[in-house]
Structure prediction request, 108 residues.
Amino acid sequence: MIAITHFTDEGDAFLPRARPALEALSKCVGYRRGSIGRCTDDTDAWVLITEWANVGSYRRALGTWDVKLHATPLLALARDLPSGFESLVEIAAGGETTAHASDREPDA
Prediction:
């Protein structure tokens, strides 16, 4: 599961606030990796990207004390955009491909 959360923040104040949030998330069960990025074309646009073993691990992480303390205040400032995505195909450097089945129920 990939979580991509968008933010709009002026200047360089975002990074010092986002880093403790990402550090808190990184300590949770099911966390795989994460990054904080700034748009190259609009320096007020930021993203917090995390990858999780599954959607349940991400949702459980949001309920932990450390995440509530360090990440929830930041996440409350996120832009209202879709943020949770299934990882369906991964292609590593060199071309190794891994396909994943969807966790969603098939359409009836």
In short: The chain has a mean pLDDT of 93.
